Every structure is written in C-alpha cells, then in structure tokens.
Amino acid sequence: MATAAGHAVEPPHAVLVVLLARADWVPAELRGDSESGREDYCVCLFESPEGDGSTFPGGQVHSMDQALASGSFGAEGSTEDPLSLALRVAAAREVFTEAGIVLAAPAPPPVLREATRQILQREGPRVFLDCLIAWDGGNPNPVLTLCPLEELSVSGMRLEGASSPAPHIFITEVPDAEELNWAKTSTGRGGKIQWLKPSEILRGGRIQLPPLEHLIVFRLCERLSRLVDLPMLIADWQDTGGELSSKAMSSRL
C-alpha cells in the first residue's frame, strides 16, 4: 500500500491512454504526414527524446489519484469502485501533464493552465490536488467531471521483460477543437508529441512502437476509419469482454 500522497501504490498499477482527435482539429505543427492516411482522425504519440520509439501517454497510478477518487472525484452514491475511478483520474492527470489536454469539465482558467501543467511536470502527482484547488478558485474540495474514458483489456499479449501487471488501457476522444489549441509539441519526458493517422503510423514500419501500442494501432487501422464509429467499436469490444487479441496480427500493412 502507498505510504504518502504522490508515491506509487503497491502493487503498482499503470495506465495507457489511446487519445484520438479529429484530423481537421489537429494544429498543423502537431501533425505528421496525416494527409496520407485513410482515417479521419489521428492518434496521440510521444516520441522518445532518444529517438528509439514512440508510446501513448500514460504512467503509474499514485496515491494522490486514489485520494481524489475517494474525495473530490467520488460522487456521492457512486457505484464505481475506488480503484476504477483512481485509474481514470490517473489517465486524465497523465494526459494533461504530458499533452496539455484536459479530459474533464469545467476546464481550468486559461491563465492557470500552463502554469499548473509545468508545476505537475516539475513536482509530480503529489501536487495534483493543489492544481485542482487553484482551478476551482481556491475551493478546498474541487469537483470536476471526467470525460468518458472507456477501459479495454488485451488478451494474448506477453510483454518481454515485464515484471509488473499489464497497464490499464483507456480510449477516448479529445472533447473539442479548442482543447487541441492547448496541446504542446513537447512533454515533461523531454520527448515530442505527434498526431498521426493509424495507417500512417504503421506504414513501412518506420515508427517503432512497443507491442501493446502496436497491437492497438493495428486494430484501429483495421476496424476504425471514421471517428464517429468509435462508440460502436467500443461496444463491440465490450460485448467480447473488452478484449483485443494479438492473434493473426501482422507486423506491417
């Protein structure tokens, strides 16, 4: 168990966020060669500063996420279990910290957005509550409504050298075009953000992805050409237990 706010919970849980946005919403400076892909949406990827691959936004769940899940984000009478809510809080926190996008409402005052993001990048999750208090005008019990974050599970994957459980995977859309105006080209990791269409990510194998990310991008390329159909795809995954199988997955298109 965690001993202090801001420390990773034991056993550790991690989240990955498959963040999608309409291609015509993505600012030109954030896009790759997205005009060449067949889909009408892009996927958010973080390119390593060492240039050795790209990943989705994500990270470990911390005790601050759990505290918020049982307090500020925990609606009275909610039937959602605390861990599930803490996972979604962590997903929203990671996306804001790394990509500058807020997956909650109401959005923070513009004057505080980048300042609180930089504080999170510097100090880590332990200051997330302080940031939310600032967003809510000093209210010591800030309440935000998280955007829909659908959890997926992946079957048939064995991650080489993994010593911890597989991450919890969430898929969601950027809520509106204005939110993408706050997206940044660099992250707290020191890497670069790219927004690319799934078919462009896979074309030629030039973008290196970990096995889990590659599987998800492959499935999106295979089954989702229009973002408007995402709810149907999610419903289909949920009907099959929320699982994505790695069987019969090719390494390239």
Name some characteristics of this structure:
253 residues, alpha+beta, Nucleoside Triphosphate Pyrophosphohydrolase, eight-stranded mixed β-sheet, two-stranded antiparallel sheet, 10 strands, globular
Would you kindly provide a written description of the structure presented here, covering whatever features stand out?
This protein has 253 residues and is an alpha+beta fold. The chain has one domain: Nucleoside Triphosphate Pyrophosphohydrolase (Alpha-Beta Complex), CATH 3.90.79.10. The protein has eight helices and ten strands. The strands form two sheets. Strands 1, 2, 3, 4, 7, 8, 9 and 10 form an eight-stranded mixed β-sheet that branches. Strands 5-6 form a two-stranded antiparallel ribbon. Helix 1 packs across helix 2. Mean pLDDT is 79; it is low at 1-5 and 248-253. This is Nudix hydrolase domain-containing protein.
